[in-house]
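User: Please predict the structure of the protein below. I'd like the answer in structure-token form so I can feed it into my own downstream comparison script.

Assistant: Understood. Taking the following sequence of 126 residues as input:
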Amino acid sequence: MSFPNNLYYTKEHEWIRVDGDKVYIGITDYAQNALGDIVFVELPEVGTELNKGDVFGVVESVKAASDSYIPVNGKVLEINTQLEDQPELINENAYDAWIVAIELRDKSELETLLNAEVYEKFCESL
């Protein structure tokens, strides 16, 4: 499993990549490995306003369905429509297969997220 240092993480196994005032969000390598073969990804609508902790989508695998939680407040700017026809892209490279991009309104919210080292230790404890 990999834990890229340029990302933020949550205890719910989402990763966050900051690009200016936009953040890309997906599920971690740990999460996709735990889920197994991913067969469906439910995406939110562009323009949806989300509050930290809201469910923004569902990732379904042959084993289970798992809600994905938004780690910061913001509005959905983009969705990764490739995942509608190719949900397995998350299994192939979880950190390239982002699910949603949202507008980051308050950069201080990033301070509540985990860095790679802390997230890796968290995963080891599970």
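That's the full token string. The two ends are 14 Å apart (CA to CA).
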